[in-house]
Structures are given as C-alpha cells and as structure tokens.
Specification:
By secondary structure, this protein is an all-alpha fold. It is about 75% helix and about 0% strand. It has a domain of about 140 residues. It contains nine helices and no strands. The N and C termini lie far apart (about 45 Å).
Length: about 210
C-alpha cells in the first residue's frame, strides 16, 4: 500500500509539474566545506532515523534458523530502500514546490491537504483518502513490529508466569494511550517545558 501511495504521488507530482522542478538544478553555490557539512548532516539525519529501528533488529533476527541468515538481506535491502525512499521524497518535494507557493513541503500529510485545497474534486478526495489510509497503515505496521511486539517479548520474558506476549503488548498500548506522548512532542515549547520540569526536580539549582 505504501509503495503504491508513493509511486502514485511521484507520478502525479512529476506529471502535474512537467518535471522534477527547480530544486534538483538549483543555482545555489556551495563551497567545498559547506558541501561536506551537508553530506555529513544528511548521513547523521538518516542514521539517527534508522538508529531506533536498528536496536530492534535482534528481536526478529534471533528467530532465524541459521546464524547471520538475515545479514545479506539487511545489507542489500536497507541501503536500497532508504535511498529510493529519499529520492522519492526529494522528487515529490521539488515537483510540488510550486503547488505550495514556493515553499518546499516534505510532510506527505500536509502535502495532501494542499492538494485538496488546490483541486477539491472527487478524484482528488478519493486519491488523498486512500493515500492517507496507506500512510496510516504503514505507521501502524511500523509501531507494531518495532515497538509493540518487541516490548511484549521483553516484558513477557521478565514475567513469564503472569504475562504472555499478547498481554504485554496490550499493556503497552493502554499505557501509551494514557500517556498521550503526541501532546508532548506536538510542539517544541511543550517538550522543552517538560524537560525543564524534570531538570528542576533533579537539580534544584537549575535555573535556565
């Protein structure tokens, strides 16, 4: 579903704009040091994004029948997947820059809102609906495989007499709904305020 969604977005963006846009052939001139910094910055950003997922690979690779069976697949699939996904993001963003009045938009959800605002037709509403369903399904799948089930494995391993993996997963889902972390992370100011509260509790002399 997510592959069909991104391929459809890419095809629509390139066709509507008549090409990838101006960001690919930008006239911005960078020095060697600036270019090197941007490359390191991009590598750090991608590495940070996949760092959390990398911690959970062992939760699944431990089920392999032979040692290191998963290594070739990960060594080939991960770089290709990350590279292609990033290319899709770049092409879609630069092709839809004109749609967003010259402002590049990386967030596909906000992009689809802009699409509806520009072309509020039955076809547009239908396409953005199914694209939204695909992105939602992807997020649910990622959270189940990377967070919920590994947490259930860990908690069930700690309390095998009382918890199964399914029960532990349900506990995580309930606690997540109670904690509502999306409210903490929705704005930078809220997140900083929460950190400052913890800092004041741990360090009474903390003033900044």
């Amino acid at each position: 579903m997510i592959c069909a969604c991104f391929i459809g977005l890419l095809a629509w963006a390139l066709h509507s704009n008549g090409g990838p846009g101006n960001l690919i052939s930008s006239s911005i001139v960078l020095t060697k040091s600036q270019r090197a910094f941007r490359i390191v910055q991009c590598i750090s950003s991608v590495g940070g994004t996949w760092g959390g997922a990398g911690e959970r690979f062992s939760d699944w690779s431990r089920f392999e029948k032979r040692k290191n069976t998963a290594m070739p697949a990960m060594a080939v699939a991960l770089p290709i997947t990350v590279t292609i996904t990033a290319m899709f993001g770049v092409f879609i963003t630069t092709a839809t820059e004109r749609l967003n009045e010259g402002t590049p938009q990386w967030n596909p959800l906000i992009l689809m809102i802009s699409i509806q605002q520009q072309t509020y037709t039955p076809i547009s509403r239908c396409a953005t609906f199914f694209a939204g369903v695909a992105i939602l399904s992807s997020q649910i799948f990622v959270n189940i495989t990377q967070n919920t089930i590994p947490y259930g494995m860990d908690l069930a391993g700690m309390f095998p007499r009382y918890l199964s993996r399914r029960r532990a997963c349900l506990i995580l889902v309930i606690l997540t709904c109670i904690a509502q972390p999306w409210r903490f992370l929705s704005q930078a100011l809220i997140f900083v305020n929460i950190l400052s509260v913890f800092a004041r509790k741990l360090f009474p002399s903390y003033t900044s």
